[in-house]
Amino acid sequence: MRRYLLLFGLLLVLAGILLLFSTRTGLQFGGVRVSTSADASFLEERTVDFLEDIRFKDFEKAATYHSIEDRRTVKIPELLERIFQIRPEFLDILRYEILAVELDRSRTRARVKTRTVVKILNSGEIREPEIIFYWHKDPRDGWVMKLESSLR
Question: Domain 37-150 belongs to what architecture?
Answer without folding.
Answer: Roll (3.10)
